[in-house]
Predict the structure.
Amino acid sequence: MRATFELLKADHDGAQGEGYWRTYLATALDHGELAVLPNHGHVITPAAVPTTIEFLERHRS
């Protein structure tokens, strides 16, 4: 994931100027949130499902 993020930064900064990646992410993720579920890896566990559903319900169009 780190490599993907570094590529995104390089692409956007290279085209639009140093630090533009922050502007891009702020626009693209204006409704983004961070949820930290302790003791979980990068898998969808039963504990992650209600958190995901709650997020989706709050941002339903």
User: Anything to note?
Assistant: Helices lie at 2-16, 20-28, 48-58. The radius of gyration is 15 Å. The chain has a mean pLDDT of 85. Residues 31 and 61 are 12 Å apart (CA to CA).
